[in-house]
Design brief:
Chain B: This is NADH-quinone oxidoreductase subunit F. The complex is a heterodimer. Chain A is an alpha+beta fold. Helices cover about 40% and strands about 10% of the residues of chain A. In chain B, strands 8-7-11-9-10 form a 5-stranded mixed β-sheet, with helices on one face. In chain B, strands 3-2-1-4 form a 4-stranded parallel β-sheet, sandwiched between helices. In chain B, strands 5-6 form a two-stranded antiparallel ribbon. The chains are: A alpha+beta, B alpha/beta. Chains A and B meet through α2, α4, α5 and α6 of A and α7, β3, β7, β11 and α13 of B.
């Protein structure tokens, strides 16, 4: 069966720095339990490849960890943080669960989508922004909020959203802090 | 001012760093523990009455005593930092602000259990907290509190932080172990329990962040002293994460036994309602526990003050009580729509079901669909009974407690707020304009639902 990601091209680049980091991760587990490193390895590989994992990239991970490709596919499709198709450079993941809803997350998602001209789950044509409504992010007391990369943006208002979009365009928002 | 044992140092500038933590008494519990008999530490934890702070409330010392120490296999301590229950964000606060307290607790607890390699499994979304923990662990290694022959004791411990990737089910201890082994987070059948066959088939204890972080204080001050704090079988302190329509949402450490009234209304804690609007309901222990309507929040069914304890919050069973759970305290004012909130919870559980058991896989999705159509004004007269029937067939019929967690909020909402469901069904025109957060235009959704038989 053809998967969605085969519709998109992705350049696979296991740099020496990435391989060093992956090998360091492997030391966290017994030598005969390499598979345990799969989730952290996928995070690292995804971060190094524009925040998504093509089927070919998943196969490369399988090869690195000496696993069958299916063992990687079944993990990638189970966990929500692995993207199986390209996403925007700045992925706005809004928490839409109860506590954020009580504090107005629905309206804020609508506001952001209208401003960017996309629906939840879509990416702007320039590839800059994606918007997604996700389940609880554990920031209930600081609602409404969203995650961009490794960081949370909390107590959001339309004005703060405007500023964040401007800051993204100016390259001021940190996605990953290596 | 209530007693603080977890957050007492939280406001010290730089407490996140090793040196400041050490200068303020940090790692003294490890120093003491290394001179003790490991079994004596377990006895202290038993004496303390500490109960698992992740939600289930199982006695921590008792859990430790189940660990199979005779198998000859390596043993592990795994910290469950996969905090994902809506309303709950306390572990994040603790790890983010005072990471060395958790690390100290991991060392003392691992020593008590005879574990030489331990893991902190943190939810993947908390990536910046993951990095804080990694830095703190590195500092602890450099200072000689981790690694080989810790402080000349002959005890070796390696500690790693491992990140998940977005799956609420991995908060269930056996699903967490599956995930830590690099697999989908499908809960395992029990028995065998992790204490006998856990991580890689080895004897394993899985404890919540807050439980482990409480251990250093118990070791330093004795289990007996810990048991003096609190109320009855609810000993010690508890982190409560408050959200929703209260004036001061946030994380608070309370002595168990505080009245709900004081927690809700005193300035030391929530400070009453946001904008002064009337209180309608609370969920006291995270999304999975039953909602309490206004008339049952401050008083139990018997008319006594309701306390922030495991027992008092559960007073009368789920007909008139709820549960302390994870301490995720969600406050609703009179503008909150209970139907909408229940649908939102149901959507969460339907999304997070691992799909392994039929009652959960099919039932949670069914609950979500029926609640959705009621919420958007397409409910049918028989829907309330249908919801009741579905939830009753999920509860108790699944491998793990996610099914129960999905069923209880629905049962409680119907039990206490049946009139709101009836209003939605009988007066759909009153609510149609509230069609938020439906990806498709309302008419299209209506058409789709009319074609379905759900």
């Amino acid at each position: 069966m053809e998967t969605k990601s085969t519709n998109y091209k992705q350049t696979i680049n296991f740099t020496p720095e990435l391989i060093t980091r992956l090998n360091e991760l492997l030391t966290h587990y017994p030598a005969d339990k390499k598979k345990s490193a799969l989730l952290p390895v996928l995070h690292e590989v995804q971060d190094a490849h524009d925040n998504w994992l093509s089927v070919e990239l998943q196969e490369k991970v399988a090869e690195f960890l000496e696993l069958k490709p299916i063992e990687v596919f079944e993990v990638v499709t189970f966990y929500t943080m692995y993207n199986q198709k390209p996403v925007g450079k700045y992925m706005f993941e809004f928490c839409s669960t109860s506590c954020c809803m009580l504090r107005g997350s629905d309206d804020l998602i609508d506001y952001t989508c209208v401003k960017l001209g996309i629906q939840p789950g879509q990416t702007t044509p320039d590839g800059m922004f994606s918007v997604a409504a996700v389940q609880c992010l554990g920031a209930c007391g600081y609602a409404p909020m969203m995650q961009i990369g490794d960081y949370y943006h909390e107590h959001l208002t339309p004005q703060k959203i405007d500023q964040i979009i401007e800051d993204c365009k100016a390259g001021k928002i940190i996605i990953h802090d290596k | 001012m209530g007693k603080k044992i977890l957050l007492d140092k939280i406001n010290i500038p730089g407490i996140k760093t090793y040196q400041v933590y050490r200068d303020n008494g940090g790692y003294a519990a490890v120093e003491k523990a290394l001179t003790m008999d490991p079994d004596a530490i377990t006895e202290e934890v038993k004496t303390s009455g500490l109960r698992g702070r992740g939600g289930a409330g199982f006695p921590t010392g008792l859990k430790w005593s189940f660990l199979d120490k005779k198998s000859g296999k390596p043993r592990h301590l795994v910290c469950n930092a996969d905090e994902s229950e809506p309303g709950t964000f306390k572990d994040r606060y603790l790890m983010e602000h005072i990471p060395h307290l958790l690390i100290e607790g991991m060392i003392v607890s691992s020593f008590a259990l005879g574990a030489n390699s331990s893991y902190i499994y943190i939810r993947g979304e908390y990536m910046w907290v993951f990095k804080i923990l990694e830095r703190a662990i590195k500092e602890a290694y450099e200072a000689g509190w981790l690694g080989k022959n810790i402080k000349g004791s002959g005890y070796n411990l390696d500690l790693y932080v491992h990140c998940g990737a977005g799956a609420y089910i991995c908060g269930e201890e056996t699903a967490l172990l599956e995930s830590l082994e690099g697999k989908r987070g499908n809960p395992r059948m029990k028995p065998p329990f992790p204490a006998v066959s856990g991580l890689w088939g080895n004897p394993t204890v899985v404890n919540n962040v807050e439980s482990i972080a409480s251990v250093p204080w118990i070791v330093l001050n004795s289990g007996e002293e810990y048991a003096k704090i609190g109320n009855g079988r609810s000993t010690g302190t508890k982190l409560i994460s408050a959200s929703g329509h209260c004036r001061k949402p946030g994380v608070y450490e309370i002595e168990l036994g505080l009245t709900v009234d004081e927690f809700m209304n005193s300035d030391e804690y929530l400070g009453g309602m946001m904008d002064g609007r009337p209180l309608k309901a609370i969920v006291p222990g995270g999304s999975s526990v039953p909602i309490l309507p206004q008339h049952l929040i401050f008083k139990t069914a018997e008319g006594t003050d309701r306390l922030m304890t495991y027992e008092s919050l559960a007073d009368g069973g789920f007909a008139t009580g709820s549960a302390l759970g994870s301490g995720g305290f969600i406050v609703y004012n009179d503008t909150a729509c209970i139907v909408r909130n229940t649908w939102n919870f149901a959507r969460f559980y339907a999304h997070e079901s691992c799909g392994q058991c039929s009652p959960c896989r099919e039932g949670t999705g069914w609950l979500e669909k029926v609640l959705h159509r009621i919420e958007i004004g397409l409910g049918r007269e028989e829907d309330i009974e249908l919801l009741w029937s579905i939830q009753s067939k999920i509860e108790g019929n699944t491998i793990c407690p996610l099914g129960d967690a999905a069923a209880w909020p629905v049962a409680a909402a119907i039990r206490h707020f049946r009139d709101e469901f009836e209003y939605h069904i009988r007066f759909p025109e009153k609510i149609k304009n509230r069609n938020h957060f439906v990806d498709e235009p309302f008419e299209k959704v209506k058409h789709m639902l009319q074609k379905q038989s759900i």
